Amino acid sequence: MKKLITLIIVLIAYISGRAQEHKIYTSLQEALLNKDQVYKLNLSHTNLTEIPKSIVQLKQLQYLNLEGNKINQLSDAIGNLKNLKTLNLRKNKLVNLPDSFCNLQHLEVLQLSENQINKLPESIGNLKNLGWVFIQENHIETLPESFGNLTQLKKLDVTQNELTHLPETFGNLTSLQEFYIEGNQLSDLPETFGNLKSLEAINISNNQLSDLPETFGNLKNLEWLICKDNKLDHIPETIANLFKLKLLYLNSNKIGELPKALENLTKLKDLNISGNKLSTAQKERSKQLLPNCNINFENSYYSLQKALQHKKSVDILYLSENKLTELPESIGELKNLQQLYLTDNQLENLPKSIEKLKKLETLSLSSNRIITLPKFVGKLKNLQELNLNDNQLTSLPEAIEGLKNLKTLYLSGNNLSEAEKERSKQLLPNCSIEF
């Protein structure tokens, strides 16, 4: 009997401890009352101008969200949060990072987007466990050589900075799977770029690239390449080695000829080469080289019609920047669709047939005119990423709690009240939500 009682006590203690690990504190005062058992703290949008010094008392802290405050400087004390794994400082007023910041040896996720950072410390290379780094919309001109030490890095987003080049050590990031660097000032890529053999998705649009290195052909796992709005006048022959490539966007460049080697890209489903210098003969040739590919010569709605002709094989569809005001019900016929990009259109609602896209994992609807998210979105059980930034949402339907696999939800630039933001966190307790 005593053994049974002891077992029950141990079990209760274990369950209680696990519950504490999942609890997200939203009050520092409350957290300090239980400081040895606080793992997650959310102080986002609380008008902080600095990080409270007392936070360092939370020795077990693993998750810290300080998004949407007015913090312009980090004290050296932040380096004492030795167990921190996730740090969100998005939408603050930071200009630089202290060297002590790089004492956070267990840090895995770092969110620094929408600050005023102009330089990263050389010591950032000490954060060997970093897997996800987001530093969009800052003023960074260079990445330190030590950046190449981040060999566990899986996703890097440096969109909308002022980068003119990448260090040669960048090729050491052999675990990198997703890389987003659109809206910078790159004129070339290092030859070592070809060492990034885990890369699956790259967006290097809106730069100054005149060519791609021959080593680009070494990226054998690449599935998704967007390189629009550059100065490319040719495509390297080595692109023929990218056997897994499914989506290739080269629109708004200066390409006058397509290499015959393109015919080797048998998995390519979506090619956009609008806004180049291709002759009518070259366009016809591309159709012969890629008979099963949806080829878009003009950035228009046409690509959806082509996708519907190959509906069983389409798993990625990119319809961004098309001035779309509505989608047809027929989009629900794309039963194998996994990624749907509808950014920068004029959509106000979605057709009910969207609920039929049972395999959909990524849905990007940022920069549209959506006022209400329909309830049937909650039926997209496989959805992992939903981007609703910069719309006109005032609330979310309760049905959204049905998105059990949703990992990331982007909601910045909407009209959500603080109460509605809290409600969304309750509906999706295991989802990372960015306001």
TrEMBL record:
Protein name in UniProt: Disease resistance R13L4/SHOC-2-like LRR domain-containing protein
Entry-linked SUPFAM superfamilies: L domain-like, Outer arm dynein light chain 1
GO CC list: cytoplasm; peptidoglycan-based cell wall
Residue ranges constituting the Disease resistance R13L4/SHOC-2-like LRR domain according to the UniProt record: 101-179, 183-282, 317-422
Coiled-coil ranges per UniProt: none
Pfam families in UniProt: LRR_14, LRR_8
Record's keyword terms, sorted: Leucine-rich repeat, Repeat
PANTHER family: PTHR48051, RAS SUPPRESSOR PROTEIN 1
